[in-house]
Design a protein that fits this description.
alpha/beta; Rossmann fold; 2 domains; eight-stranded mixed β-sheet; about 20% strand; globular
């Protein structure tokens, strides 16, 4: 693959689980970053045929999405590439956004496939692409499911990418499934996440996430648990520090015991569909917060695979400090200013107190860290090089 401009087919969750603004942004960061580098990108998501019906929530959400656009970075002589979005009925030819004939033609000429969680398995679109990369945003879970016999589509790919920066290193218990994993950090398109106002609209540490996402498999003595299992260990945090915590938490109303425990401990819950149900609302919520308290799925914590959140990348780019539960990422990113890691409730309280005591210093350090380590231009350029997709 050579030349000034690459054709990149990107598959990820755009709208299949509607009103998940943060999940949509995780894909749009790649679209924005790759097009800013001058490449042509078609981002698509397979969805059940009914999702494309006129009265479908998925369709309505998809049709509300726009491709991020902005100024070409200084010194970029290639000009901005093109980005397009498509929703395609699984196994069929019905599409939204881009006609199937154009999707097929693009795939037939594509230099590279970036396939988040192996979502795209349509061999009509895959077969002619020379470099097909499985992109793992859920390190530990994807590998364990594959090791336990679930077909994650690994065999359809030639390369394997993970945001678990320690996967495959000595001491990391996550199974490699016989593959060599390319580590990457989550990219953030800085031009779309400029430093926010000094005074936040919400005087609170916030975050966005689901209480539970799926099952909790066990492998080699490690339970790959959910955010629920991590947060339960931190219930007492608001009692240990003078700070306000607002969680945009997707939790079922029948989780009454946990809802009562959260409330009794001083956690405040806000409706994630209201504050983060679109990419725009999600961005406003993140940028309007004082800082993030990042509580990781307990599987990430237990497996120490180095997972780092694409959501935390957005907070940092916005100049919002992050206190994050340690998953091994401290071996990959600088911590102590702007980004502070913790393992216990006492350490979390100390991290929060430090950010409260020196807000300006940590705001500036947060943005500087994002510029140095998470900038989509840098992250994606390195990734393309490691995939052999240099322009």
């Amino acid at each position: 693959m050579s030349g000034e401009r690459l054709k990149i087919l990107l598959c990820g969750m755009l709208a299949g689980d509607p009103r998940q603004g943060g999940a949509t942004w995780a894909v749009l960061q790649y679209v924005a970053g790759l097009t800013a580098l001058g490449h042509d990108v078609l981002a698509l998501e397979p969805a059940p045929p009914g999702a494309l019906d006129r009265d479908s929530d998925v369709r309505a959400y998809f049709e509300s999405l726009t491709v991020p656009a902005g100024d070409v970075g200084a010194g970029d002589r290639r000009g901005r590439g093109q980005g397009r979005l498509a929703l395609i009925a699984t196994g069929g030819s019905q599409t939204l956004g881009v006609p199937f004939s154009q999707v097929a033609a693009f795939a037939g000429e594509a230099d590279l496939l970036l396939n988040v969680s192996g979502m795209l398995r349509d061999e009509r679109l895959l077969e002619s692409i020379e470099v097909r990369a499985f992109v793992d945003l859920d390190p530990g879970f994807n590998q364990v499911w594959q090791a336990q016999g679930e077909d994650m589509g690994f065999d359809l790919h030639t390369h394997f990418v993970t945001v678990g920066g320690l996967v495959g290193t000595p001491g990391c218990p996550i199974p490699t499934c016989g593959r060599s994993w390319i580590a990457t950090l989550p990219p953030v398109a800085l031009e779309h996440w400029p430093p926010a106002a000094e005074q936040p609209r919400r005087d609170a540490f916030t975050t966005v996430g689901n209480w539970r996402s799926y099952g909790s498999p066990e492998h080699a003595g490690i339970r790959y648990g959910q955010r629920a299992h991590s947060l339960r260990e931190l219930y007492d945090l608001p009692r240990h520090v003078e700070a306000r915590f607002e969680l945009a938490l997707g939790i079922h109303p029948q989780e009454t015991a946990d809802l009562e425990a959260l409330s009794a401990s001083g956690w405040l819950l806000v409706d994630p569909l209201e504050v983060a149900g679109t990419p725009g609302a999600y961005r406003d919520f993140v940028r309007g917060s004082k800082a993030e308290l990042c509580v990781a799925k307990s599987g990430y914590v237990a497996s120490r695979g180095g997972w780092f959140s694409d959501r935390s990348a957005c907070y940092l780019a916005s100049g919002r400090p992050v206190a994050a539960q340690e998953t091994g990422f401290a071996e990959l990113l600088p911590t102590g200013e702007g980004l502070i890691c913790f393992a216990t409730t006492a350490e979390a309280a100390q991290a929060v107190s430090e950010i409260e005591a020196h807000p300006r210093r940590h705001r500036l350090a947060a943005r500087a860290l994002a510029e140095e380590h998470l900038d989509a231009g840098r992250v994606l350029s390195r990734l393309l090089e490691r995939l052999g997709a240099t322009a």
